[in-house]
Amino acid sequence: AQSVTQLGSHVSVSEGALVLLRCNYSSSVPPYLFWYVQYPNQGLQLLLKYTSAATLVKGINGFEAEFKKSETSFHLTKPSAHMSDAAEYFCAVSVPGRRALTFGSGTRLQVQP
Amino acid sequence: EAQVTQNPRYLITVTGKKLTVTCSQNMNHEYMSWYRQDPGLGLRQIYYSMNVEVTDKGDVPEGYKVSRKEKRNFPLILESPSPNQTSLYFCASTPQGQGNEQFFGPGTRLTVL
Fold first, then answer.
1. B16: region left, alpha or beta (phi > 0 left; psi from -120 to 50 alpha)
2. Contact call for A103 and B40, based on CB within 8 A
3. Mean pLDDT of chain B, nearest integer
4. CB crowding A74-91: b at 16 or more within 10 Å, else e
5. Of A85-89, A92-96, B67-71, where does mean pLDDT reach its minimum?
6. Nearest to A44 among B98, B100, B104 (CB)
7. Torsion angle of C-alpha atoms A107, A109, B2, B4, degrees rounded to 10
8. What is the count of residue pairs from A and B with beta carbons less than 8 Å apart?
9. Distance CA B59, CA B104 (A)
């Protein structure tokens, strides 16, 4: 079975600073990896996904993530945080043949002015 | 507009009173699922459906039922709700194929007293 660990339930950065949200996965087969964002009182919106093409994946709103098989990681980064990035971020994994997503516990990002 | 809709968005009920949360998608997706979101646990899959009349249990199915009589609709039924089912519920849909994005509804916040 696959699993996801997100390190840090809360991350606080200053506006303009680097955003780094950590995600490590466990899977016995090559996984599909996703980052979703949830703004207050809203559903989940896809930021980006990895499906075995390029290991550096660019998403919406300036976010990107790098798939590192040797480290079983898929960390999310953004060079410069904006106030509008404040939200909860979820890393998720699925595997071929099973479309269900297994989610991490989420990381709430705060952006300080 | 392509979307997943859920109703109601908010519901307060009492223990044992049967309720149904509706979910509908207009994207002709085959796969639909229900998740519940609880603090510190991320999202966990309750039930899923691969297509009309094909449903199966997810990771936390106890106390829930579903049906899939039409491709666009996937209602979640709580026959006898209990307080431990107080949660935020999301419906999602995804097209056939591997590694596809899941599209989420806006969520239903359920409180069982």
1. left
2. no
3. 94
4. bbbebeebeeebbbbbbb
5. A92-96
6. B104
7. 50
8. 58
9. 18
Q: Beta-carbon neighbour count of residue B56 at 10 Å?
A: 12
Interval A60-80: pLDDT, tens:
999 999 999 999 999 999 999
pLDDT in tens, A14-30: 999 999 999 999 988 88
| C-alpha span between A55 and B76 (Å, rounded) | 37
Residues sharing a CB contact under 8 Å with residue B95, sequence separation 6 or more, in sequence order: B27, B28, B29, B30, B31
Q: How far apart are CA A31 and CA A101, in angstroms?
A: 11
Under DSSP, is residue A51 helix (H, G, I), strand (E, B) or coil? coil
Question: Among residues B19, B10, B4, which one has the least CA distance to residue B91?
Answer: B4
- Examine residue B8 and say whether the peptide bond preceding it is cis (omega within 30 degrees of 0): yes
For residue A99, list chain B residues with Cβ-Cβ distance below 8 A: 31, 33, 48, 94, 98, 100, 102
